[in-house]
Design goal:
It is a single chain. The protein is α+β, with helices and mostly antiparallel strands and 329 residues long. The protein is 30% helix and 30% strand. It has eight helices and 18 strands. A hairpin with a 2-residue loop joins strand 17 and strand 18. Helix 4 packs across helix 5 and helix 5 packs antiparallel against helix 6. The termini are far apart.
């Protein structure tokens, strides 16, 4: 690979690109990939985390190479390895996922040559309403990424999600709508539901408001079928699946700026507040980790108003807010 192309690819991983440029880079990456080239591996290693062993890094890289660039057919194992990679190289994993989907479409027919993949990302403190090519509406929560084609041309309407989103799916009985989120695959015809699947979380949740939804979980023989107000929670670490009846609209209230905390553990509340308010929270000890919080905050409440309520629920908690940092002791 030439130095010119090498620099373009490295630039691509760290900058926002237009849809046209994204499609052109995808095309060049797929067509020019060379096993002996070190460009992708340099980027991969540069995003690594010391908490992940060298053996896991090496195995995840080989697995990703094989799946994306055609040495191995896509299988459920892909989701397991992409999740390992996502713990420390989220941008690379998401882009390689979209590369795989891009290659699958371009290999299928030359009629699809005008299709590119769109990457939508919401930073911490942001939310966005997206309308997909089939008129499906997607509310994307803070710190989330959605990847979808510029046009749905296959038998299924496939999208990839990392983070949290609420879907209002347009009905099309002949073309099921499929959401891939780590080890989970959700399939619907037309319905409204919320999905939460952040790469740094051990839990996956899907909450159905209307209609029905089929959920395939890695390692489970039979799919789970949810009806209205069903909520499925899957624990990646234990493999346990729980389904319960809830008021589904509470779990998508974030779309309007509200926060619904339903016996949420203190560490998870901290992560949620960081994403929602784009603030860095420094917890100086672990004595509150076993606490759970149940509260409902209205839209547009400030971080200080939220913390004042949390302080009432946990009287021993003290905090100090300085600019974009919040300190808890």
């Amino acid at each position: 690979m030439s130095k010119y192309i090498h620099n373009i690819i490295k630039y691509f991983f760290s900058h926002d690109m237009t849809e046209e440029l994204t499609e052109r880079v995808h095309r060049r990456m797929v067509s020019s990939y060379d096993d002996n080239d070190s460009t992708y591996r340099e980027i991969w290693d540069g995003l690594s985390d010391e908490s992940v062993s060298d053996e896991m890094v090496e195995e995840a890289w080989k697995r990703t190479q094989d799946v994306v660039f055609g040495k191995e057919k896509r299988s459920k194992k892909w989701y397991r390895w992409s999740r390992i990679a996502a713990l420390w190289a989220i941008p690379v994993t998401l882009l390689l996922t979209s590369l795989f989907l891009y290659k699958a479409i371009t290999n299928k027919s030359n009629d699809y040559k005008d299709i590119c993949f769109v990457h939508k990302f919401t930073a911490y403190g942001e939310r966005e309403l997206i309308t997909l090519p089939d008129s499906t509406k997607v509310w994307l929560n803070s710190g989330s990424t959605l990847i979808y084609p510029s046009s749905f041309v296959s038998k299924e309407r496939n999208v990839c999600l990392s983070g949290e989103a609420f879907f209002d799916v347009s009905k099309d009985a002949e073309h099921p709508f499929v959401v891939d989120a780590n080890q989970i695959r959700l399939k619907v015809l037309g319905t409204t539901f919320n999905v939460c699947s952040y790469p740094d979380s051990p839990m996956f949740t899907a909450t159905l408001e209307t209609g029905k939804i089929q959920i395939d979980v890695e390692g489970k023989k039979e799919p789970y079928v949810l009806s209205s107000n069903d909520r499925l929670v899957y624990n990646y670490q234990t493999g346990e699946v729980n389904i319960s009846q809830v008021q589904a609209h509470n779990y998508s209230s974030w779309r309007t700026g509200s926060l619904y905390l339903d016996d949420i553990s203190f560490p998870k509340v901290i992560n949620l507040l960081e994403r929602t308010y784009n603030i860095k929270i420094h917890v100086r000890h672990t004595r509150f980790n076993n606490q759970t919080i149940r509260a409902h905050f209205s839209a547009n409440e400030s971080i200080d108003e939220v913390m004042a309520i949390i302080q009432m629920l946990i009287p021993d908690l003290h905090y100090e807010h300085k600019g974009n940092d919040l300190y808890i002791e």
